[in-house]
């Protein structure tokens, strides 16, 4: 480890502790004002590097209780009307990558519905507040997407409250690290596939009749679809399934003018990882094995979710866009 790293980590951790409710970003970039482009010049962001403090939360965890707090773009993402008037549903929109997409979509002019688990209400409240601060409609729909009936209701409620649906982001997931296949119970296997694959199928099926030409579906795959971790065999298999589902459905929906793409993140600093997604003893070094030497922050994916939702990507479908810190991915 290079000698400077502990200092860097301490600096960002202190920055995080000092940040207020919505001032969650750890980086100097966070000091920039949000809002329209054309104000202060963009600073090059500096993001937290390992080692991170040891920490664990009971699943599903709260981003607001992580140290350092993840940067979801709360104070840094600037919109420019790229999704003006559009209506988006994002699963797992309370925290992590889904929250970064929710903030960015609202700042690009979209109304946003988020789904999450009831235990995540404190995180969801922050996101609702951030969306409303942009003058956009925020719809909060808690519930368990392992239930097909709830998935149907989720889509119907979101579309009714938003007045339509143009963008669907299937992002929620379950990830439980297990050193051996022998440690993966049928219940865990079932839970992982129900959350990551079945729910995507149910939600997408319910949304299809509502989606018009120009709509976009964005699924969250993973670097593990291409380079599965030895401790994430079941989870990686779901991410491979998501990648293939995305490519097949893209072909089916292309004639209807509906695009289907996926995002493949590498290691990102989110609640998923501090609630059993990584072995607790490996968490302090999370992301260190990438060429960038650190995990990504959710804010670093926001632009990809915006691009895939916007007309700027109108000839891209069946693609997987990666942000992996330099190794693996499509
Ligand atoms: P996160 O914990 O912040 O988000 C996951 C969300 O899934 C939770 O907030 C929760 O609301 C939702 N969820 C889980 N089970 C649910 C259920 N039964 N019903 C309703 N909602 C449920 O973590 P994240 O890392 O932002 O995860 C977002 C996506 O990114 C996931 O698809 C994950 O697999 C993917 N991903 C993450 C990483 C990473 O390193 N963090 C890497 C690759 C892919
Ligand atoms: Mg969450």
Describe the structure using short key phrases.
330 residues, alpha/beta, Rossmann fold, seven-stranded parallel beta sheet, 7 strands, 35% helix, disordered N terminus, binds nicotinamide-adenine-dinucleotide, binds magnesium ion
Explain briefly what this protein structure is.
The chain is of the alpha/beta class and 330 residues long. The protein has helices at 5-18, 96-107, 121-133, 148-162, 186-207, 233-253, 271-277, 299-309; strands at 87-91, 111-116, 138-142, 167-170, 216-220, 259-265, 320-323.
Detailed description of the structure:
The chain has about 325 residues and is α/β, with parallel strands linked by helices. It has a single domain, classed as Rossmann fold (3-Layer(aba) Sandwich). The protein has 8 helices and 7 strands; from the N terminus they run H-E-H-E-H-E-H-E-H-E-H-E-H-H-E. It has helices at about 5-20, 95-105, 120-135, 150-160, 185-205, 235-255, 270-275, 300-310; strands at about 85-90, 110-115, 140, 165-170, 215-220, 260-265, 320-325. It has a 7-stranded parallel beta sheet, sandwiched between helices. Helix 3 (about 120-135) links the parallel strand 2 and strand 3. Helix 2 crosses helix 8. It is globular, with a radius of gyration of 18 Å. It starts with a helix and ends in a 7-residue tail after the last strand. About 50% of the residues are buried. Mean pLDDT is about 90; it is low at about 1-35. Bound molecules: nicotinamide-adenine-dinucleotide and magnesium ion (MG). Nicotinamide-adenine-dinucleotide binds near residues 195 and 273. The site of magnesium ion has 7 residues, from loops.
């Amino acid at each position: 480890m290079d000698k400077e790293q502990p200092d860097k980590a301490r600096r960002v951790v202190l920055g995080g502790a000092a940040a207020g409710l919505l001032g969650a970003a750890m980086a100097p970039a966070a000091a920039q004002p949000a809002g329209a482009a054309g104000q202060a010049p963009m600073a090059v962001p500096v993001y937290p590097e390992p080692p991170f403090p040891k920490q664990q939360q009971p699943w599903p965890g709260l981003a607001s209780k992580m140290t350092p707090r993840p940067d979801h773009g709360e104070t840094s993402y600037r919109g420019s009307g790229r999704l003006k008037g559009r209506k988006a549903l994002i699963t797992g929109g309370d925290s992590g990558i889904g929250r970064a997409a929710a903030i960015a979509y609202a700042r690009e002019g979209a109304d946003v519905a988020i789904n999450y688990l009831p235990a995540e209400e404190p995180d969801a409240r922050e996101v609702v507040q951030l969306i409303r601060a942009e003058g956009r409609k925020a719809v909060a729909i808690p519930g368990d997407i392992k239930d097909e009936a709830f998935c149907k209701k989720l889509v119907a409620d979101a579309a009714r409250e938003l007045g339509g649906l143009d963008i669907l982001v299937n992002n929620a997931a379950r990830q439980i690290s297990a050193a051996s296949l022998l440690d993966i119970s049928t219940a865990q296997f079932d839970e992982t596939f129900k959350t990551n694959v079945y729910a995507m199928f149910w939600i997408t099926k319910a949304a299809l009749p509502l989606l018009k030409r120009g709509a976009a579906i964005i699924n969250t795959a993973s670097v593990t679809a291409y380079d599965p971790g030895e401790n994430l065999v079941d989870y990686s298999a779901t991410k491979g399934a998501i990648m293939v589902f995305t490519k097949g459905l893209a072909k089916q929906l292309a004639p209807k003018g509906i695009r289907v793409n996926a995002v493949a993140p590498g290691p990102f600093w989110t609640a998923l990882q501090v609630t059993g997604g990584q072995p607790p003893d490996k968490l302090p070094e999370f992301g260190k094995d990438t060429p960038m030497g650190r995990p990504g922050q959710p804010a670093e994916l926001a632009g990809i979710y915006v691009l895939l939702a916007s007309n700027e990507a109108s000839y891209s479908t069946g693609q997987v866009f990666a942000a992996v810190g330099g190794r693996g991915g499509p």
